[in-house]
Design brief:
This protein has about 450 residues and is of the alpha+beta class. It has three domains: about 240 residues, BirA Bifunctional Protein, domain 2, CATH 3.30.930.10; about 50 residues, no CATH class; about 110 residues, Anticodon-binding domain (Rossmann fold, 3-Layer(aba) Sandwich), CATH 3.40.50. The strands form seven sheets. A seven-stranded mixed sheet has the order 3-9-10-16-13-12-11. A five-stranded mixed sheet has the order 20-19-21-22-23, sandwiched between helices. The protein binds adenosine-5'-triphosphate (ATP).
């Protein structure tokens, strides 16, 4: 099963989805760059999420806060003191591990008895030491302590510190939500499994502000909504999705209740999104550190309180890996690899191919292309045999192949080829747009 990830990594490179960062310098660990198809796919996923949050829900609005913020924010949030992973080194081979990979309860492990998984030496592992995951940086030209801040490790805090401004500007009444998509940075000790865990990534977070006492009900609702998103919007296999509830020992310092949505990756069940009841912890801490009152005033009931927050926190890159894994299909019968993306996610919706490079076919194909490209991401390809052109697009996950032949000149028809079945039909040029549009709606 692990092999599938290796195959996916090479397909992603070959077809222009994802590249290792700084490739010509030998690569830069745990950072990835998104190529022409990768960025289209990533945008399609994030737009679906954004639309689901800010368009489907009238009481959810968006913001885009800075990556760099006041350093006190990270003291208040607890990240300076507690955003640590326990690090263990092998003195023999220098391999590095997260202590909780050995045991969730790593504090009771006798490290003298442990064996290094890489070199096999017993007794070579150090005692765990805490390692802060935030990237430090300096603001301004002089590197003094007063100028130190951090690259944000989560987008959530940018929402909390702006919540009153947003609420006032948009005249929002509780319950309401604020959504944000943006980069986050974590100096992960070990990064593996391709884009699953990286040091720079994107989060899609929505913080839902509710009246204390209604938080449990809201948590239930968001759990349901978010699970459905993966099935109804991304079209993922239901059998590969499940919930995992955090036990008391796993709960973050701010959380009252936490659930992960997990996906069955080739390397095992792993978290793709967290849904957390963060209580009023963050707002309380920001009140304490900023000296500002952050309560909400309910005019109708003449009631003032500090809202509770239900957070839905998803990683865009992990969601993308989920979509890639779910779509990967080796069609052994036809000796081809196909990315079976739902058409609404596919980076390219159709390829337009003139059968030959003469007899007016390229011109006819270009005309079709020019009309369709105002509606969809379409590409034109006249290179190589038609079979090779289709197989290239199967790997790119392009749902439709449109071939323009000599008959097209006479009667304005083309052949349309369906990626998954390889079935081919003769249709009129006017029908292409409707077929693509309908395929993107259906789920
Ligand atoms: P993990 O236990 O996997 O480190 P976490 O519990 O620390 O994740 P959260 O802080 O809840 O994760 O972050 C919310 C979401 O952000 C995760 O579900 C995941 O999709 C994404 N995410 C977190 N860390 C990373 C990372 N290093 N690379 C890619 N995505 C990440």
């Amino acid at each position: 099963m692990e092999k599938i990830i290796e195959k996916l990594v090479s397909l992603c490179k070959r077809r222009g989805f994802i590249f290792q960062s700084s490739d010509i310098y030998g690569g830069f660990s745990a950072i990835y760059d998104y190529g022409p198809l990768g960025i289209e796919l990533k945008n399609n996923i994030s737009q679906l999420w954004w639309k689901e949050m800010t368009q489907s829900h009238e009481n959810i609005v968006g913001i885009d806060s800075g990556i760099l913020m006041h350093p006190k924010i990270w003291e208040a949030s607890g990240h300076v003191g507690a955003f640590n992973d326990p690090l263990v080194d092998c003195k023999q081979c220098k391999a590095r591990y997260r202590a909780d990979e050995f045991s969730d309860d790593y504090t009771s492990v006798n490290w003298q008895n442990e064996q290094c998984p890489k070199c096999g030496t017993r007794g070579s592992l150090t005692e765990p030491r805490q390692f802060n995951l935030m990237f430090k940086t300096h603001v301004g030209p002089v590197e003094e302590t007063g100028t130190e801040t951090y690259l944000r490790p989560e987008t959530a805090q940018g929402i909390y510190v702006n919540y009153q401004l947003v609420q006032g500007a948009m005249r929002l009444k509780i319950p309401f939500g604020i959504a944000q998509i943006g980069k986050a940075f974590r100096n992960e000790i070990i990064a593996r499994n391709f884009i699953f865990r990286t040091r720079e990534f994107e989060q899609m977070e929505m913080q839902y502000f509710v009246k204390p006492g209604t938080d449990d009900e809201s948590m239930q609702q968001w759990k349901k909504n978010r699970f459905q998103f993966y099935i109804n919007h991304l079209g993922l296999s239901k059998s590969k999705l499940r919930f995992h509830e955090h036990e008391d020992s796993e709960l973050a310092h701010y959380a009252k209740e936490a659930w992960d949505i997990e996906y069955k990756f080739p390397f095992g069940w792993s978290e793709i999104e967290g849904i957390h009841n963060r209580t009023n912890y963050d707002l309380l801490r920001h009140e304490e550190f900023s000296g500002k009152k952050l309560s909400y005033f309910d005019q109708q009931n003449n009631d003032r309180f500090l809202p509770y927050i239900i957070e839905t926190s998803a990683g865009l890159n992990r969601m993308l890996l989920t979509v890639l894994t779910d779509a990967y299909w080796e069609d052994k019968k036809n000796n081809r690899t196909v990315m079976k993306f739902h058409p609404r996610l596919a980076p390219i919706k159709a390829v337009i191919c003139p059968l030959v490079k003469k007899d007016g076919l390229p011109e006819k194909a270009r005309k079709i292309m020019n009309e369709l490209k105002t509606h969809f991401k379409i590409i034109y390809d006249q290179q190589g045999s038609i079979g090779k052109r289709y197989y290239r697009q199967d790997e790119a996950g392009t749902p439709f192949g449109i071939t323009v032949d000599h008959q097209s000149i006479d009667d304005d028809t083309v052949t349309i080829r369906f990626r998954d079945t390889q079935e081919q039909n003769r249709i009129t040029i006017n029908e292409i747009k409707t077929i693509i549009t309908n395929s993107m709606l259906n789920l």
